[in-house]
Specification:
This protein has about 260 residues and is α+β, with helices and mostly antiparallel strands. It has a single domain, classed as Sandwich (Jelly Rolls), CATH 2.60.120. It is built from eight helices and twelve strands. It has helices at about 5, 10-20, 30-45, 70-75, 75-85, 165-175, 185, 250-260; strands at about 20-25, 60, 100-105, 135, 145-150, 160, 180, 200, 210, 220, 230, 235. Strands 1, 5, 9, 11 and 12 form a five-stranded antiparallel sheet that branches.
């Protein structure tokens, strides 16, 4: 088997993405790049990894980063192949950086941002974020991505993922058509329809990436470990809408499978 084949997703991984809504890729970028990214983020935070007495907040946020380490981490050959395999070859835009960064610190305080949710894909110019939208064609988002920039164990505030929830959300978005549903509409019942989904924790070594279906329901949680958790949660942007003249991507196949559609 060639190195290229080894770095590509297997057919089982692609099917798991369709069924479960995500795939985990270990060593998607190097630990050296992860360290470079953390070093820059520590500077942005005005904090030090060696002075935990100054870590007084449960979570601090940094926006987007466009320097070389972040661009390189998001654009490794292995990730580009996976983007092609899941979103359709050449149907996505190469990331120009990484963001945003919810950096979580060991704390007994509530962060106040740990509710279950789906990331919205368009309409984000509206001043009320509850009016941001998503539709059944996932306009504006090819993938949800979680880049682990530090080692993340079960106690280190790993993102919680509801396996298979993307299929439920697809069916709930279907009646809203192209206009889509707002976050307020989609979250009105607190995602109670997905409560029985098995929960997976997004753990892994620095350099691990979770590539997720845009409709996947997920949530933050408190940090009970010892070292801060560094993660980026960018979207992969599509070049355009789904093209019915092209073979359907696994993102599309998951929606078709859930809604019995043919787009």
């Amino acid at each position: 088997m060639s190195k290229t084949d080894q770095a590509s997703l297997t057919s089982c991984q692609v099917q798991s993405f369709i069924d479960d809504g995500f795939v985990r890729i270990e060593s998607a970028f190097s630990t050296d790049l992860a360290q470079q990214c953390r070093d820059e983020l520590w500077i942005d935070l005005g904090l030090s990894p060696d002075k935990p007495q100054h870590w007084t907040q449960p979570v601090l946020r940094v926006g987007w980063k466009y320097s070389t380490p972040f661009i390189s981490a998001a654009n490794t050959p292995q990730l580009h192949r996976a983007y092609d395999q899941l979103s359709g070859k050449g149907r996505w835009l190469a990331p120009k950086g990484l963001g945003t960064f919810p950096i979580r610190f060991p704390s007994s305080e509530s962060s106040g941002d740990d509710g279950w949710h789906v990331d919205m894909s368009f309409g984000d110019t509206h001043p009320d974020f509850m009016e941001w939208r998503a539709n059944v064609k996932s306009s504006g988002r090819a993938l949800l991505m979680l880049f682990l920039l530090s080692d993340v164990g079960p106690d280190d505030a790993p993102t919680k993922i509801r396996k298979g929830s993307h299929s439920i959300v697809a069916r709930e978005l279907l009646p809203y058509g192209d206009a889509g549903a707002t976050l307020r509409q989609l979250s009105a019942n607190g995602y109670a329809s997905t409560v029985d989904c098995e929960v997976e924790l997004a753990t892994g070594a620095a350099g691990t990436v979770y590539l997720c279906h845009p409709f996947l329901v997920h949530a933050a949680q408190p940090h009970r470990g010892e070292r801060p958790r560094f993660m980026a949660q960018p979207p992969l942007l599509p070049k355009g809408e789904f093209d019915p003249t092209l073979p359907p991507s696994p993102v599309q196949l998951a929606i078709r499978q859930a809604c019995e559609l043919r787009f």
